[in-house]
Write a structure and sequence with these properties.
Blueprint (H helix, E strand, L loop, with lengths): L1 H5 L4 H7 L4 E5 L3 E6 L2 H10 L1 H10 L6 E6 L7 E2 L2 E2 L7 H13 L29 H12 L8 E4 L6 H15 L5 E5 H10 L4 H9 L3 E5 L8 H16 L3 E6 L7 H10 L4
Parallel strand pairs: 2-3, 6-9, 7-8, 8-9
Antiparallel strand pairs: 1-2, 4-5
Helix pairs in contact: 2-6, 6-7
């Protein structure tokens, strides 16, 4: 059943709202679906209830009601009418996982001098709506697999619509999962000021940001037109991207208002 849903909705939406669900109960009266948190529960109830009903009907199930319950150990090992054993983790898979963790743990660092994140911005208090659902889904995917999908992630919206909250929530969740991770969260205005101030110590400035595991840049529009700063930023951008480090950018203007940025995105995504 999940396979049918996966090809019906955007990949990011499926990964966020369905991938960590499981079928807990199915009889003629009721279908109970386990979900990992209250946000997934709310989203499935409000947006995907009819899709689930249609999919169940296609598979010969017509329950009187569908119930969602928070079930912390949900996994995609169950489907309608069947249950598969959990895959056995091989030594090769463990080695790959350990290597990935090593790659993302450069050296222990304290939060106060590393991330510049505001701890009040979390996924738990971020309000998901129709206008930001895709951005939220992409953010969740980044936390699960940093440097792989949606890299770089560019979030564009008007002023006051939550993009700062969302990009900092990504950093806070990454930091919660791995306190050793090196996260640099800055505004483009601050980046510019630091670059100008470090003219005589350019190497120190470059190393600071190019050694990060995650670079979060807020209000990217302020870098537009500052030629030297743009050039320095995109040297940093290229160094991090080539090393598969995660880059997250927000702006209240579209990418085409920042010509240099647009060019880089076209290089990374020819169809953009």
């Amino acid at each position: 059943m999940l396979g049918e849903i996966e090809v019906t909705i955007p990949r990011a939406s499926f990964a966020t709202w369905f991938k960590n669900t499981t079928l807990l109960k199915s009889d003629g009266q009721e279908v109970v679906i386990g979900v990992p948190n209250v946000f997934t529960k709310r989203q499935l109830e409000e947006k995907y209830q009819s899709l689930l009903e249609q999919t169940l009907h296609k598979n010969g199930l017509q329950p009187e009601k569908i119930t969602f319950t928070i079930h912390q150990e949900t996994q995609l090992q169950k489907d309608v009418g069947k249950s598969e054993p959990a895959p056995v983790e091989t030594s090769q898979k463990r080695q790959t996982t350990q290597q990935r963790q090593t790659d993302w743990s450069v050296k222990p660092k304290s939060r106060s001098n590393t991330s510049n994140l505001n701890s009040k911005y979390t996924f738990d208090n971020f309000v998901v709506g129709a206008g930001n659902e895709l951005a939220y889904a992409a953010s969740q995917a980044i936390v699960k697999n940093p440097g792989e999908k949606y890299n770089p992630l560019f979030i564009y919206s008007g002023v006051g619509l939550g993009k700062t909250h969302l990009i900092q929530a990504i950093g806070n969740e990454m930091f919660r999962k791995n306190p050793d991770i090196c996260i640099e969260c800055i505004t483009s205005e601050r980046f510019t000021k630091e670059f100008i101030a470090s003219t005589l110590q350019k190497k120190t400035f470059s190393d600071k940001y190019r050694s990060a595991d995650v670079l979060i840049v807020d209000d990217m529009q302020f870098i537009a037109g500052k030629e030297k700063t743009e050039e320095e930023f995109f040297h940093t951008f290229n160094a991090l991207h080539q090393a598969n480090k995660q880059i997250i950018i927000s702006s209240d203007q579209p990418p085409n208002s920042i010509p240099t940025l647009e060019e880089r995105l076209r290089t990374l995504y020819p169809s953009t």
